[in-house]
Protein: Beta-glucosidase
Organism: Sporothrix stenoceras
Amino acid sequence: MGSIDITTTLASLPDDFDWGFATASYQIEGGVAEGGRGPCIWDTFCHLEPTRTKGANADVACDHYRRYEEDFDLLQKYGAPSYRFSLSWSRIIPIGGRNDPINEAGIDFYNRLIDALLARDIVPWVTLHHWDLPLGIHDRYGGWLNVEESQADFEHFARLCYERFGDRVKHWITLNEPWIISVFGYSSGINAPGRSSTNPEASEGDSTREPWTVGKALIMSHARAVNVYNKEFRQTQKGVIGISLNGDYYEPWDASEPKDTEAAERRMQFHIGWFANPIFLKQDYPECMRQQLGDRLPTFSADDMAILQEAETDFYGMNYYTGQFARHISGPADQNDFKGNVDELQDDKEGRPVGTKSGLGWLRSCPDLFRKHLTRVYRLYGKPIYITENGCPCPGEATMTREESVQDTYRQQYFADHLDAICKSISEDGSDIKGYLAWSLMDNLEWSDGYGPRFGVTFTDYNTLERTPKQSALLLGKMIESRKKSAVQASQ
Ligand code: PNW
């Protein structure tokens, strides 16, 4: 793919622009019963019969638990200045609660990880929680369904992590994608713990209420973890803290229909405003959510609001993959709706597709919408943005051999086009975008889709666990290298 001109594309990136790759504990580690780790809700979910994860579990996954040195050699080979990974809460506190025993062997594992990164001059970015909730607290009190207990336990877990790792970790992300946790875990039930009243595979749940309760638990958990950092650690540790929010960009299905324009904006409020209003604007949920959901949407008490007011979050972590069209639905919203009473489509009224097809049905490459998304989020919430995830599987990659998969032309074009969108949002729209972490360092467990979709810049052979760099890893490596050179030139 020699045709991608990386130097002109990247010219408008700031000299201190950060780069790297991202992963999550459950998707790569394996070693689920090693070193005193307790079970998490995904362990149970992956072993349900009949399967709800295409037969896949994470008992071994990429065996990163044992192979992390090799994986960090790859990061170094790719020239990555930064690496984002997440902590398995139940490795550190096997049952999960604030009065439960701490597992020193789990802490040692993450100390080794952090030290192995620093030895290679790679900056660790740590996500405290990326979906693998300790089963112990799910069983004890319902996990995120218990707003008061879960936020107290998360605060305790966060404090322990700052205490033990914060001398070396200066970049924290509290939670990954609270929207997915709430909706996939407690409305559609396609993710652990798989609760739903609309999904025939689920035996328990209330899709009309549970996602909104869980959302509040996550917002308050984030805020309390930020407050602990700011009050007890920031002065000595001098790090930054943010949260990673997912959300697609929506265009109206019929651009000449004002109701579709409203529907597109409403859809984004239901995706992002749900969390960003309380966290970044320190306000109640978006008005359109209150209107539609009424008393099913929890309220913030005066005490809650005081906690939110205090919680100054440094950056907006953006996980972006795709865009869609939104079409308004006439009439009142269904009780189970979580989208803001809109239909989501991949073609507009004229039949024009939103983007080119990737290897997953929900993911189309739409870099122009990425630029609009970046600019909209920056204007609305006013915080520096780090892209904490962006990537795709190539069309057909799920059934490719290693030799075919490493020639990942589609992914290279996707990265180049999305970096170009970042440059335009910075230089033409004035957004403050500070870094880009590609998803993912290696092919890994794609949650309920199992090991089919390959998001990695490194091919994982799930039989031998051998890793092979794909062309896209080398392309990003070249981009990083060329930026380093121009930063050095600029400083001379
Ligand atoms: C994110 N969607 O999840 C997660 O943070 C990663 O762990 C995951 O591997 C990655 O994106 C790729 O999927 C998402 O359906 C899962 O819109 C699904 C969606 C979005 C994000």
Summary: The radius of gyration is 21 Å.
